[in-house]
Amino acid sequence: MEFQDVVQRRRMVRKYDDRPVDPAIIDRALDNATRAPSAGFSQGWAFVVLDTPADVARFWEVSAEGVPDRWRRGMMSAPVIVLPCSSKAAYLDRYAESDKGWTDRDEARWPMPYWHMDTAMASLLVLQTVTDAGLGACFFGVAPGREGALRSEFGIPDSHDPIGVISIGHAAEGGAQGSPATRRRTPAGDVVHRGGWRG
Q: Which tens digit of pLDDT belongs to each residue from 71-111?
């Protein structure tokens, strides 16, 4: 698939069919994720891959409670879940090294949390790779109040923070329905400000 086709076809898929996912596609997506840009080449990311029915079921048991609504029932059909995690410590440590010129790990030097931003860019490469392979995926947030249970269940260390969740599988009929089905995409001309902010 041409790159422009990947960009235009990528959608957040919220329902999957029961076809298995080729593990080689997941491996390729994760390898591509490690090629994302990162400040100082800190590479402060890690990925927890849940690709067995038992592990995916464990994820849903600890990440939500109550009777699943329509959205969650659709998402629960994904055969693969990836938890991208960022490490602030990796960035603070990297920029305290001699070639960066800082002598401390002061977090105040970071007006934006690049550890989260770089891991988000790595996550986008996962989304694009699975789209290129003909699969669907969705990036969504960890449910409020469930991060501790998620950390405990899957052994995520305190040095890393799960920044979200990526579900992956073969899109079911109507699986990409969501806000884009009811809201228009904002034209680039409305958000691009050449030479300074306008309007």
A: 899 999 999 999 999 999 999 999 999 998 888 898 988 99
Give the domain ranges of the chain. 3-173
For 144, the 3-state DSSP assignment is coil
Helix residue spans in 46-173 (DSSP H): 53-63, 70-75, 88-94, 114-132, 147-154
Beta partners for residue 161, in sequence order: 86
Q: Which of 44, 47, 119 is nearest to 89 (CA)?
A: 44
Inter-CA distances, 78 with 47, 64, 170, 173, Å: 17, 15, 8, 13
Superfamily of domain 3-173: NADH Oxidase (3.40.109.10)
Report yes or no on whether pTM surpasses 0.90.
yes
